[in-house]
Amino acid sequence: MKFICDKELLMDASNNVQRAVSGKSTIPALEGMLLKAGGSSLFMAGYDLDIGITTSIEAQVEASGEIVLNARQFSDIVRRLPGETVAVEADDRMNVHIASGSSEYNVMGISAEDYPDIPSVGDGIQVSLPQNVLKGMIRQTLFAVAQVDAGRPVHTGTLFEMEDDSLRLVSVDGSRMAMRQETVKTSENMQFVIPGKTLAEVLKLLKDEDTPLFMAVGKRHAILQIDGYSVITRLLDGEFLAYRKTIPQTSSTVIQVNTHDIVESVERVSIVSNDRIKSPLVCRFEDSSIYFSCTSSMGSSNDYLSCKTEGDTLEMGFNSRYLLDALKNAETDEIKLELGGSLAPMKIVPVSGESFLFLVLPVRMKR
Predict the structure, then answer these.
(1) pLDDT in tens, 70-87
(2) Has residue 367 been placed in a domain?
(3) I need a surface site. Which of 135, 182, 323, 342 has the fewest CB within 10 A?
(4) What CATH number should be reported for the domain holding residue 83?
């Protein structure tokens, strides 16, 4: 195998593909990046058996072939090369020569025969939507994905629910829920769960533009095609939470408040608490105001904020980080807080429309 390509193209591609490569594995090939030269392009792939990222870049191919190189080492080499082009040559013994400008490297590769087959979704259901739409939807729900499976691995992913020309994303972790929906043309109704790890990588590839992305969904895998990259992911099995049953249908107190103002108040009061101490943030809703307080071994803090209030006076305690995550991801100037009692979830929704809905469970306070 022998090819020459643009250094910047190779560097960008290797940096993105490397995100799907396993950091440590008992299978050496999984720590590698597959390079396949042929025609006038170089195909590159990273795959850790859960997520794969592939792409192709232009290349001057002088000898077709394929090889696997340690992904971290190869990316580090390419990033530091001084020239504008890179020449890569591999012989039958897996010896690889990399040259650019005044620099040369000789490294050992691995046979491409040892690389696992990357799944395909040939007969999957096809969906297309603007990149900026999916980017916003993922960003506003990813924070609520469970970080550990706690017996339900399916909750370490986000539910994609397509029905009646709408796409809904739902994430839950036992203490909170995030739901985001948009109008999307779909050929049929379906549900599937994509791992949060995959969505975090997809988020890095998506642009804040309305250029389309394409998604194919099969029984076990899905593929997202984004600006020349293909992200392949396994789908999570299991029964996702019946989230509709957890959404409160009535409320005794409704608050309308400026999002930026409430975020700043919660951040100020939370300074005397942290994940290790875990003292609750106490919120008292009364007289067109929200009164915040927190007491811990680090000290105490108080603050208040004007708002529009309807209904009963109420006092509740929250994990401040969970509350902040929801408030910061509202991404609207004004929000509504709907409350049904001191132990019922706080429902956070936009003032108008139904684009998002967040639930944050309160914590019991010591009396």
Answers:
(1) 999 999 999 999 999 999
(2) no
(3) 342
(4) 3.10.150.10
